Amino acid sequence: MALSMAVEDTSVDSIPLVPNIRCHAFRVTARMIPASATLPPSRSLRPRHPTPMARAHPPHNHAAILRAILNGYALPERGDHGIVHWARVLENGLRLAELTGADREVVALFALFHDARRVNEFDDDGHGQRGAEFARSLRGTLVHLSDAQFDLLHDACRLHTDGLMTGAPTLLACWDADRLDLGRVGITPDPKRLATGAARDLLPWAHHRAVTAYEPRLVLQEWGI
What we know:
By secondary structure, this protein is mainly α. The protein has a single domain, classed as Hypothetical protein af1432, CATH 1.10.3210. Helix content is 43%, strand content 0%. Helix 3 packs antiparallel against helix 8 and helix 6 runs parallel beside helix 7. The longest helix is centred in the middle third of the chain and has 18 residues. The radius of gyration is 16 Å and the shape is globular. About 20% of the residues have low confidence.
């Protein structure tokens, strides 16, 4: 399945589709757009100019990957670290990729695999490594990445709870995409612990979605949910 999904915009009315404000300018007010409101048209996140590397392998079938993950998933599918979290991480990550040049395929697969082999909702040492190794087990069947891309995916999953602030743009986009969704468990992300300026700009938008348990319906539809 190609990365043809559009990111839905559920922003505060003062925040543009691609935010260019800083976090300190954000105020939570009663004027937040409700989920039922008519929203501005979303932009397609299909790569405008696919690279030769991106064309060298089949498109990923994210719905099939999700089915493989859920077949052995130990936690509630809609729990704190489940599919709705993954869907928001995907949309966070694709927005960051648009702004930073991160690899969208790696970002999209990170969203699916980073918590795919958790065994509890709290401290779960090694779950990133387990998710990375599960992705490795699907190479050649459902995961079609070059060696360089897969190394990024593996490192992104393996290290995503380590609080790292430096690395390749794709790694930083993956980690920040996850950090931006901390509001779902009652944590307000610290802008100083976001690795990219793009994530700090997206924080108001992403945090609002996290604390309101927003469900990205277009992503879930594409995943077959």
